[in-house]
From TrEMBL, chains A, B:
InterPro entries: KFase/CYL (IPR007325), KFase_sf (IPR037175). GO terms for biological process: L-tryptophan catabolic process to kynurenine. Pfam families: Cyclase. This is Kynurenine formamidase. GO terms for molecular function: arylformamidase activity.
Length: 267, 267
């Protein structure tokens, strides 16, 4: 049976019955890295330096040294990223449960709401309205907030920073607790630079996604793209972080497997 | 059908019918990076610097900046890594065909040969003997050379460097050409620091894996571990490199999906 499933996976990918969608932004120097208030130390953006390029430093080969942070570009947040998750088992990139690196996803389309209000806050009411249409969110699955952020954000002010801080979408405290306590999801993902809303510094507690998800051994994915190519239910996410010793997170390639009958529920 | 396959994948992973095996070495400063003759520029080993750890630099969060090369730790070689593949389409980490990031694998167990001779050279004869026992190597699949290198190598001389250069296993020129021209494989992977044999600088052409595989738009994977946990046929490899702009390769998490009826052929 398991061999049949794996053969089916390879065959369906080859024949296009399962479409693969790359949810990853290209790692490049210009892609914005999260900016904290200046009293805190900052994460580095991506940079690359050529070691050799078919030249005297290496006649037949091209390669680069690279510098970045664990939270640069499309990346994964591990539980130990936040103080609430610091002592949990399987909480760093080198101790994660590998079986969680393949998991179903539900996609909450908030693109209209974000187009009308870039600081849109995801609430329990919104999640329950989604469930009324698409069914109960299954335990162990990713919840992705689709914002189409690349289309609505000002490229020169990608985090939408204003005088009173950033305005970008994210969940409120109750929505975070509901996803964990009522639905036992695997993690929460988005297209913006942080999983928490731009104004989440003012929530109680601040940064509720980080506070509650990391504190429950759950995950985050951010700086993704192409969420508009995913169905509401039925897709499967491959998210395998680098195995960094004691890593708090990791840039990674996030891939979605999308069945051709996209509306068929995952379970 | 495609939805059924994806549901089956999630169910079998949850129930243990499909076992996930992590083929990745932990990214850590001590893990050896390939060393070239000193006239060439070198790739950096992995290093990490704490940005904050629940302290004054970031009271609620822990994260690190990291530096490494595209070819540090368990990593992927893209076609543009070698001059023979420099102008091929889909040849860098940001232009790779994503469908190739999930592919079957055949595992050639050379652990006995390597235990007897650390510089063991894989030949066409050896591959044909493997086929006589396990069936024809299918097109589009990975070929992994299992050496159990971690068990046989001297930890203080991991590349097994001697006066006349390194002695570690790898394929000869004819084996590389045969895998490409007669079997059209996807790539070649191993547990040693390089896909080419330690003595491959003296082959004609030098470094035949790099020369022929990169020049044919095919791939390499190296510095893997746990290949002794894979069946000869029937497993599926997930190898999704970072999406580095013009990247020649990338550290990555390599995962294997192993069916419980391991001896059943993949096709
Ligand atoms: Mn992060
Ligand atoms: Mn390499």
């Amino acid at each position: 049976m398991s061999a049949t499933v794996l053969n089916g996976l390879i065959t369906e990918i080859a024949q296009g019955g399962i479409k693969m969608v790359d949810l990853t932004e290209t790692l490049r120097p210009e892609y914005p890295t999260i900016q904290l208030p200046e009293e805190f130390k900052q994460a580095l953006p991506f940079s690359a330096e050529v070691i050799s390029k078919y030249d005297g430093d290496g006649p037949a080969w091209y390669w680069q040294n690279i510098t970045l942070s664990e939270h640069t570009g499309t990346h994964f947040d591990a539980p130990c990223h936040w103080v609430t998750g610091k002592d949990l088992p399987n909480g760093s990139t080198d101790t994660l449960i590998v079986e969680n690196m393949i998991a179903p996803v539900v996609v909450i389309d908030c693109s209209k709401e974000v187009a009308a209000d870039k600081g849109f806050i995801l609430t329990v009411e919104h999640l329950q309205k989604w469930e009324a249409e698409h069914g109960t969110i299954p335990a162990g699955c990713w919840v992705f907030l689709r914002s189409d952020w690349r289309k609505v954000a000002d490229p020169d002010n990608y985090t939408n920073m204003q005088e009173d801080g950033a305005h970008s979408p994210g969940p409120d405290v109750a929505a975070c607790r509901w996803m964990i306590e009522e639905r036992d999801v695997l993690g929460f993902g988005c297209e913006t630079v942080g999983t928490d809303a731009g104004q989440a510094f003012s929530f109680d507690p601040p940064y509720p996604h980080h506070y509650f998800f990391m504190g429950s051994g759950k995950y985050g994915l951010q700086c993704m793209t192409n969420l508009d190519q995913l169905p509401a239910t039925g897709a499967v996410i491959i998210s395998a972080p680098l195995k960094i010793l004691n890593g708090s997170g990791s840039p990674l390639r996030v891939l979605a497997l999308v069945p051709d009958r996209a509306q068929e529920p995952a379970q």
